Amino acid sequence: METIFIPLMLNFLGPLAPISWTRRYMPDCGSLRGLPAVVIGREEDVTWDCVCEMRYRDELHLQQQLARLNEPDVAERLEEEEEEEEERFCVREELRILIMEVFGD
């Protein structure tokens, strides 16, 4: 995903791309110098291994990006690439996308 799909998507988006894109991966147990990856709760309850945070200038920026991604030519090309790439990293039925606001930044 990170070497094929994301660069392709960013190429289609141009100035409508997020101003930042950060991926955070769950560490393997023990990779935190003996600290647990899950501090409160149970590790087996965490059914995901990555969180992506995308930041936008404002809501208009996000809306413009979504409109661009849904243009027929862009959506079709991304869908072709995504199907191949997605099989290697994602269970589509378990994918979740949330829109959140940042306060105090």
How would you portray this structure in words?
The structure is a single chain. The protein has helices spanning 5-13, 59-69, 72-89, and strands at residues 20-25, 50-55. With 105 residues, the chain is of the alpha+beta class. The chain has one domain. The chain has a two-stranded antiparallel ribbon. The longest helix is centred in the C-terminal third of the chain and has 18 residues, at 72-89. The chain is globular.
For the biggest sheet, the summary is: 2 strands, antiparallel
**SSE ordering:** HEEHH
Helix content: 25-40%
In DSSP terms (H or I, runs of 4 or more residues), the helix count works out at 3
Low-pLDDT sequence parts:
none
**Physical arrangement of strands within the biggest beta sheet:** 1-2
Mean pLDDT across all amino acids? 79
Provide the gyration radius in Å.
16 Å
Shape call:
globular
From the N-terminal CA to the C-terminal CA, the straight-line distance is 29 Å
Beta strand count: 2
β-sheet strand percentage: 5-15%
User: How many domains comprise the coordinates?
Assistant: 1
Helix/strand-derived class? alpha+beta
Topology diagram in text:
Layout: H1 5-13, E1 20-25, E2 50-55, H2 59-69, H3 72-89
Antiparallel strand pairs: 1-2
Summarize the structure.
The chain is an alpha+beta fold and 105 residues long.
